[in-house]
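Pilot study result, target chain (332 residues):
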Amino acid sequence: MKTLNVKTLFASAALVSVTATSALAADLTMNVGFGAPVESLYGRFGKLFEAKVEEYTGGSIDVKLRCCNQISSEDEAFKAMQLGTVDGFFITSNNISPHWPLMDVTVLPYIFQNAKHLETVLDGGVGELMKAKLQEDTTVHLLSFGPALYRDFFNSVRPINTMADMNGLKIRVPKNEVMIATFEAFGANPVPLAWSETPTAYQTGAMDGGDNGTSFIRDMKFYEFEDHLVILEHFVATAPLLASDAFMKKLSDDQREQVKRAATDAGLAMRKKVANETSEVRKWLVEEGGMAMTVPDKADFVKAGKMVQDRFAKERGAEFVELVAKIQAAAN
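Predicted structure:
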């Protein structure tokens, strides 16, 4: 029988101990929050991101998804990431704008001509420029713009067949200047309201209606309170995944690159998944949710939207105008 060398045995044991300690030290948890239910678009996007991070980093980063405002509300999460008290969060693009006004270039009504135009902007040079500028201005990292959905309009008062039918409707809007101005241009009475307060406002009738990414109308069961679904396709809502600089600085160079890669790949995969879902969800809202759907002629809405674009281009200054020009040029 071969005799083990005692020194070799102790050396091997010490090496295993050091290796195990190093591995434990390298393990990190990334808590990623969002305001919607687990089954929502954010939850689905989060699960893809979680799987890809753990695959690409060999399990050295453990992503924990925190739904339903567990770690922050969407309205407060951006500031929390600047302070380093939240690792990551999914924030609808229009709720980033109060913290970084240049994001409003993607919120402008009818700014994107079609899905291809939007992808060219977000996945190309304009998108990379916006990511770099956001981090430079706020320290927060924009890891992925994520999937994009039209925001469909809904209300509990009447069908909308013309822009005149919008007159006087009390509409919940996010705390976003472009969105407020847009609904004013449409003739409605927009009321800024935090997301956390929105479901109750619809349920109690405090608001006549609002708009959301189509899937959110179903996920949040707004069809239970809102009778009329209106296809305006006035805003495109992206679902950016952001991370704090404090968290990103905890990562090695390789881990940082793999997290960015995971976010990009998860965002593209999620975009493909939802690309064909809008029409299916609209059909469900009518057939299963009991909503009545109208598709107004958009000419007057587009004309009003163009006036909003021109107004904000004048008010926001040279950087804003330059980004709008780059977005418009990407359509050609």
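One observation from the pilot: The longest strand covers residues 148-155. A full batch analysis is planned for the follow-on phase.
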